[in-house]
Amino acid sequence: MALSVSVASQSRAPRHRRQRQWPASVLAEIRRLRKRHPNLGKEKIHVLLTVFCATRQLACPAPRTIGRIISDTQDKMRHTPTRLGARSQPRPARPQRQRKPKHFKAQFPGHCIALGTIKRHRDGLQRYLITLTDTHSRFAFALASPTRG
């Protein structure tokens, strides 16, 4: 019995997969619980959701399903609590860091540089070694800055 294998084998996965369908009230309750208790985990949500579903005679999703429902949403139903300063005043959220894209390639010298610092202790002196490398031309520069400790 011979098995025939095509040269360009294609995926055998179904094109249209079943979507999770839970009542809107259950999804709203999960979101409400996550908002009331910031970043609450799926197991603890399940305990609170069981009571909610029992009173309304709804099927309660398992903890694993609750985790999948949370991860399916765009914002992961995550609400960060307000950060407070020294005098209990709300502080602004930290800005997101700008990072280099994964497959970034510098187009010209000076387009992208890499910086690094090293701190060395020797003979009671602290020395800071600052290095700079241009990612396009591979030009490197190092500067030593001594300071007393």
Structure description:
- The protein has 149 residues and is α+β, with helices and mostly antiparallel strands.
- Among the domains are: 24-82; 113-148.
- 25% of the residues lie in helices and 22% in strands.
- It contains three helices and five strands; from the N terminus they run H-H-H-E-E-E-E-E.
- The protein has helices at residues 24-36, 42-55, 63-72; strands at residues 83-84, 90-91, 113-122, 125-134, 140-148.
- The strands form two sheets. It has a three-stranded antiparallel β-sheet, with no helix packed on it. It has a two-stranded antiparallel sheet with strand order 1-2.
- Helix 1 (24-36) crosses helix 2.
- The longest helix is centred in the N-terminal third of the chain and has 14 residues, at 42-55.
- The protein is flat.
- The protein starts with 23 loop residues before the first helix and ends with a strand.
